[in-house]
Structure formats: C-alpha cells, structure tokens
From TrEMBL, chains A, B:
Family designation: Belongs to the CinA family.
Gene name tied to this protein: cinA
Residue ranges of every copy of the MoaB/Mog domain listed in the record: 4-171
NCBIfam families with a match to the protein in the record: cinA_nterm, molyb_syn, PncC_domain, PRK00549.1
Name this protein carries in UniProt: Putative competence-damage inducible protein
Entry-linked PANTHER family: NICOTINAMIDE-NUCLEOTIDE AMIDOHYDROLASE PNCC, NMN AMIDOHYDROLASE-LIKE PROTEIN YFAY
Pfam families: CinA, CinA_KH, MoCF_biosynth
Gene3D superfamilies recorded: 3.30.70.2860, CinA-like, MoaB/Mog-like domain
Superkingdom classification of source: Bacteria
Organism of this sequence: Romboutsia maritimum
C-alpha cells in the first residue's frame, strides 16, 4: 500500500514553521508498513492543490493531507478534496453539535464560519477531533483515498493515533520494525566499505547508513507478518554487523554516547572528576545529561586560565612554561591532578586551541589534547579538529567521551 | 522568479529527521523575493528524482535540492541532475584537492568513493563546502537551473549563505536587506500584541517574528534599489521597536545571549566564577563560547554533590540539611562562595531538579534556583521550568545568563 503526504499551508511553504507533521506521519506510516515515496508541501490554493491530488493519486493509493481545515475562507483542503472526487458537502449534524459543545465549554459561542467545519461529503468517514474544532475525514472514490487531518500538530497527532492508524493497520498485512546500531569513530564512506557485503544484500531486512555529527547510525529494517518474525529477520544481521564493527558500536536505538559512558561508570562504580580548559564545561555537562550520574560524578573544574590549572589541579608552573598550556604534558598533569584533588578513580582533561584566534604554525586552531587518568594509568591523545570554535569544542568533547568508553570496555 | 525545493533522502522520507532544510530555504528564498509554490521530498531513487525534476522545472525556473551528495552509491542527486540535463561528469581537480586537504588535517586519507564527490559537469558552477567534504553545484540548461546542496544542515546553511544567496540576489534587480533584533523573556504571542501597530503596517519593510527556544527574533526586511536605501527604510522601524522593547532586546543579527553577556563582562573587566549543580557545566560552556573570555573567566565548578558544594564553595552543612541542596539559601551560598573562593567580582550559581526522577510535591521537577553575586550584592531567583532533563538545564542556563545581562546593563 502506497501513501503520500501533502502538507497544506502558507506558513510551511514560506518557512515560518518547521514541518513536524510530515515527519510524524512518515515515521508512523513506515512503522505500519505503508510505503511513502513522496511528500509535498503546497499553499492554500485550489488549482495547485488539485494538481497535487492528481499527481499523487496517479502514483499512490492514499493521500494524507494536514492543514487547511480552519474556519476561514483560505482554509480549503476539505472543499478541494471533495471537489476533486466530485462529492457534495452536507452539514454533518453530530459534528456541528460537537463544535457547539466545544465552545460552550470555554464559555463562548461558535461563529457562523465555524459551521463550515461541520460540512462533509455524505459518504465520508468523519474523524472526531478531541483537541480542537475541526474534524478530519476519510474520503474515498474507486480505489483511491484522501485522508484529511487538521494542521495543529497536537490535534493531528491525536487524530492519527486514535482513528487513522487503526484504520490503516486494518488495511495492511505486514508490520515494519527497525533497529538502530550507533557507531563512533568510523566515517560513512569507510563504514560502507566495511559493510559492503551486508549493504549489497539489502532486501529484507534493509540496512541503511545515516551520518550524524561525528557518528553514524546503521538502521536495520525488516518487514514481516508480525513483530516476532520481523525481529527474527533483524537479529542475525545485527549480530553480523556487531561482529564486524565490535567496539566502534557505542549504543542502540536512542542511546547516546554520554549515556553509554555514564552507564558503565555507574555500573562499575568508578568515581570521576573532570578538568576542562577549551571545552569549558561541555564534558561535565554531557555526562550530567545522564540521570543517576550523581553517584559517581564527583566534581568538574573549568580551569580556563593557567592560574586555575596550577592552583586547582596542581599543574606545575614549569610544565606550563616549558611546554605551554596546550601540550601533552599539561593534559597529563591536569587529568592526574583533578583525579588526585577529588579522590576519584578517573580524571579527564581537555586543553586546546578552539580559535578563532590563538593559533600558531606549531599549534594551529583545532589542536586539542585530551587526557584520561584511570586507576594509576594515564593516556593522552592529540586531536586535530576541523570547524569553528563551537564545533572544535563539541568534537573534542565527543572524542574524549568515546576514548573513555573504549578504555572502560577494555578494562 | 519561481523556485522549488526538493529534499532528497530516505531519512526525511521515512521521518527519521525533521526537515529543517526546507524551512530554512523557504524562509531565505521568501526574504530575497524568490517565489516558492511547492516543496517536495523524495528518496534516493533515480526514477522518482527524475520525475520530480521534470514536474518542478515545468512549473518553475529553479530547483534547489538538499541531500544525496555523500560518497556512497545511494547518494545520487548530482548524478541524476547531470543526467536530467544530459551533462557528463568530470573530475574537478580543485575539489578533489580540497577533499584531500580536509582528510589530511584530521590525519586520515580519503577513500576511493570520496572521489565521487569531486565529479561535476564541465560547465557547472562549483560551490565550495567549508564545513564538510561534498561541494555543491549550480547546473544550468537553457533557462532552467538546478542548484544542488549537501544535506547536513550546517553545511547546507553555510553554502547557501556564502554562495547561493549572493548568486540569486544577482539575478533579481532589487536588493533585500534584513536586520534582526533579538529578544529574550517575552513570548511570541505577547510580542505580537506589543508590536501590533508595527506588524500591521508591514509592507516595506516587513516585520516578522520568529520564535526560538526561549527567545524571539524580530526580522525587519526592506526591498530597495540599493543597500543604502534599504537600510534607511529599516532604521526608523528598528528604532521604534527598540523604544518599545528596551532591555528585553539582548542583541542584533548573529549576536547570541552569551555573546552579549560576555562582551559586557570583558568591557567592564568584571571577573567571574561559576558554580553549577543541575546545569552541570552548561553555563561555563556557554560563556566560553565567547572568544576572548579568558581575561575575565576565572573558574567554573561543577559541584553536583553536597560534598563538593561544601568543600569547594563553603556552603554550610546546616544550610543543606535545613533547606536542602535545591533552595534559595543554597543558591545564595554557592554564588557567594564561588566568588570568594576565586576572588572575583561576580559569582553565578545554579541548583535545581532536572529530573526525570527526584521531584517531590514541594520541589517538583523543573524547580531551579539561580543565584547571582555581584560586588557585595546577591540576588536569587526561583524558576519553574517545563521540559525534559536536557531542556530544563538549557532553559536554566539561558535564564541565568539573561538575568546577569539585565543586572549588568543596570549597573
């Protein structure tokens, strides 16, 4: 079964609002096995909307529209859909009663143009709106269906979940299930080479790569007659990918990099303290994203100045003088110092040149040292990062979290 | 001049990500007087993409695509666009050199499939990508134009601003100039009422509101035959808005809230230290976004535990026992303590319940106290914030920066 999504409304066409409705519908339709090959956005304009219906229903069985069900004259989605199917609108009394009730409840009376919202083709299935005044509807002619939903996301989402989803599930036979594997430290192109055998064999399940900032998501999607069968198709593919990528995988589905690190720290009860220079609080802030971190997160220090590095962390003045604040030696002393000061198992440190000023030939913008002290052992890593000040800081933050993760799982 | 936007990519089609690219482009195109009547989304599929090009270029002069420029085989936007125009792809050496440089910098070598990103039709205008590996391009045939841009928003936005916008403005006769005023602490609907006289008079310049997280941007846009004339249309409107909103305005154009605060601190040479509990490093991290902050940012402390609050900041045990860590009293002692410890003019503090656990009837999730000590005076403010853990922390961070800003400009 093929469907298309048509978003109707000038505010989306002109970019005044982000189209979250399309994303919601696309995701929901995929999850119940309805294929979507096109989405469109068009303004409140009869001619253009008619052309969209023509084009879409040539290619697909179902069109789902959002928007254009309001009480004013420029709201015309329902009227145009009925006209396209050559169906006449009649007053639907239960809907009109419901609109009256809605207004009574807020001590108001509906205006005459609200009545427009209660007109529907005689044979349409009316979709109740429990969050606003505009009912939706399912219009059918021959084998083609137009489902019209209101534009406000809260009304649309509720109406879809309550009425449209059950209606569509009834029409479909298969379910579609996805699992995501999350990878850090291997770029998209390199991943494609590593996984080329799996990627080429794509059919059911399919395997797709999605590049994120510094990371790649691998999504495995299967179609089957029920959830168990879909999961059993996915399982061996995921195991295969895991056997190839091993430790580069930091999580699954909604798990973040900081979640995966924080989880290990809490599970192993490893106390941690963080000393940050160029990242300026980002590493601590990421770790604290994880609820329950308080049992092992002892303290974070944003030691941006040399004085703070010496006084707070015990970095030696001679180290700073001889090697500079951005150096392997300083990163090591920061990591060791912060761990010692706060009596933790682990100390993290970052020091680097985030720019835009301050770079030299030897120490260019983007040079960052990250230090990790764990139970008596210290490692330090030199990074050369691209991007503006904020990106360099964000990338250094992700990199140290991933290095710590690798260290922890090998412990 | 009519344009259409085609978003290419399975991740948008399947609803994995929200299509912010279309919104950005729609808004930008409207601002320079390019008309957009349709937006489309299509997967990485040659036949369907060709059909989209056909349909769109029948109706419009220009098609702008986003996505599908990656190194892998399913990335095919450029190849399909060239095929549609019947143009052959050739290796563009400067682009290939640039890709090599990009990888060299991060101590990696490009894979053979990265080379695909450097192939273009001979006569295409190549658009440099300063934030990633995939260059964009402008392809032309007869009176029709296809502009292909990368999918990652950061790369796409920069490329549009640097190359595409000037190119399109050149094709139009008038110049369009925008100035943005940035407001914190007044919601969009309230702003609309405050500015209703100005908003109603919109024609040239137009005045539009754009709600951001916790803030609203007011964009004033004028169209005129040259920049000076456009600016002289904008100026009185901006002055009018400033006279109404006064201190609620924190900046103009690209200025961020943290920029505006940090700038005052540096100008007035006011030394600052930060003690964070629930925000866990976000306040420090935001301040350090500002280059040049090092002259006045003394130190940041992430004192997440009670022990850290006592040992590092001198918060009294009896205060924590009597009032709790999340209290006005603790926030005051944290702000005063961090300022005293690091000998600064200003001390900031945050303490709150970010959730999802830990809320009680008296102290629900979202309760945050922020403290500001400035030269002998301490203020504390109680916030009740909505949202998930991350949002509550981000909102508390923005709120304390704005409170500090208001304090500083009244000094």
């Amino acid at each position: 079964m093929k469907a298309e999504i048509i978003s109707v409304g000038t505010e989306i066409l002109l970019g005044d609002i982000v189209n979250t409705n399309s994303q919601f519908l696309a995701k929901e339709l995929a999850s119940i096995g309805v294929e979507v090959y096109y989405q469109q956005t068009v303004g409140d304009n009869e001619d253009r909307l008619i052309k969209c219906f023509e084009e879409s229903l040539k290619r697909s069985d179902i069109v789902i529209t959002t928007g254009g069900l309001g009480p004013t004259d420029d709201d015309m989605t329902k009227e145009v859909a009925a006209k396209y199917f050559n169906q006449k609108l009649e007053l639907h009394n239960p809907s009109w009663d419901k609109i009256n009730l809605y207004f009574n409840k807020i001590n108001k009376v509906p205006t005459e143009n609200n009545k427009k919202q209660a007109y529907f083709p005689k044979d349409a299935i009316i979709l109740e709106n429990n969050n606003g005044t505009a009912p939706g509807a399912i219009l059918k002619k021959d084998n083609k269906t137009i489902i019209i939903l209101p534009g406000p996301p809260r009304e649309m989402v509720a109406m879809f979940n309550e009425s449209v989803k059950p209606y569509l599930i009834n029409l479909t036979e298969d379910v579609i299930i996805s699992k995501t594997i999350k990878v850090y430290g291997i770029g998209e192109s390199r991943l494609e080479i590593k996984l080329q055998d799996i990627l080429k064999k794509q059919s059911n399940p399919t395997v797709a790569l999605y590049a994120k900032e510094m990371a790649v998501d691998i999504r495995v999607t299967a179609k089957a007659e029920n959830e168990d069968k879909a999961l059993s198709l996915i399982k061996p593919v995921i195991e295969n990918i895991k056997s190839i990528l091993k430790n580069s995988i930091y999580g699954e589905d909604d798990e973040t990099l900081e979640d995966s690190v924080a989880k290990i720290l809490v599970d192993k009860n490893l106390k941690i303290a963080v000393a940050e220079s160029c990242t300026g609080g980002m590493v601590s802030s990421q770790l604290i994203n994880y609820p329950g971190i308080s049992s092992i997160f002892m303290e974070g220090c944003v030691t941006y100045s040399n004085e703070a590095k010496m006084e707070r962390l015990g970095v030696k003045r001679e180290t700073l003088n001889k090697f500079g604040a951005v150096s392997e030696e300083t990163a090591i002393e920061m990591a060791q110092g912060v761990s010692k000061t706060f009596n933790t198992n682990i100390g993290l440190s970052t020091t680097g040149i985030a720019g835009p000023e301050g770079g030299t030939k030897d120490k260019p913008v983007g040079l960052v040292y990250i230090g990790i002290y764990i139970n008596g052992q210290t490692i330090v890593k030199k990074l050369n990062l691209n991007g503006n000040r904020q990106l360099i800081r964000q990338r250094a933050t992700k990199d140290i979290l991933n290095e710590l993760r690798l260290k922890l799982i090998n412990m």
